[in-house]
Amino acid sequence: MNKKMTNDDITKAYMAKNVLEIEQLNFRYKQEIILKNISFSVAPGEFVSVIGPNGCGKTTLIKTILRSILPETGSIHIQGQEVKTLSNKDLARHLAVVMQTIDPAAMTVMDYVLLGRLPFFERYQFFESQKDVVIAQKYMELTGIADLAEARINEISGGERQLAAIARALTQEPALLVLDEPTAHLDITHQVRVLNLVNTLKEQLSLTILMVLHDLNLAAEYSDRLVLLDKKNGQIYKAGTPEVVLTKASIQAVYQTEVEVRPNPISGKPWVFLINPNAEAKNIDGK
Prior knowledge:
alpha/beta; six-stranded mixed β-sheet; 10 helices; globular
C-alpha cells in the first residue's frame, strides 16, 4: 500500500518543481521593514525580473537568496533544498550571481572566468584541470569574449567586464543565474548586448534567470514574468506577465510618477513613456 503523503511531503514536492521558491520572506533593518511577506517562485527555464523604485528592497532580496544577509523569517529553496542548509560550495553549484559592479582585478580574463570552477575543486586541488579550461573556453566563446582571454580585467571596458562576469558565472554550470542590475552604467549598445545574451542563454541552455532591473522597458521586453516591489510597505505590489504588471495604474501607484503605457509597435510588449508636464500634448503621429 502506498504511503499517504503528508502536508510536508506535498510542499516539498511542489518546491522541487521550481528552481527557486521563496515563501513568506521578511527582512527589516534597524526596525524599518524592507521586505514583508515576499513569496514567489521561478520555474525551470523561466526569466523573471524583479522591479521597483530605489530603496524598495530589490538588492536586499538578492542578498537574502545569496545568504549575504539573513531574513528575519521565511524560507528560500533552490531546487527543493533550503539554502540555509547548503554549504557554500553546494550553494555555488546550484546558483551563480553577476553583480552590477565588477571588481577590475589585475588578472587575465581567462583566469577570472576560471574562478567559476572553484566550487568543483576536489580537496587539495590547487589548479584547474583540463576539463575546467575547456568549460571556461566554451562559455567565453558563447559570451563573445574568447578573443579577450589574455587581456586583463582592469584594461577592458565595463561592458566587456560584464560579459566576462557572465562567462565566469556560467562556468559554475548553475541551475539558476542571478543578475543584479547587469546593465547598470552601460550604454544602450552594451545593455542590449547583455540582455540579448541572457535571453540566448535561457533559450540555448534552458537556463533559469532571476534578474533585478531598473529599466522598466528592458524588463518588459525580455522577461517572462515581473515581480513589482512596493517601497511603501515592502511587499509585492503585483506579479505576473509584463502586460499584467506594467499598467499605468500600477506604475503611478508604486513610482508616484505620471506615465503612459502603450504596446511596443514591434514586440507588442508594454512600453512606458514618461510625461513631461510642460510638454505640449501630441497625437500618436506626433502632430
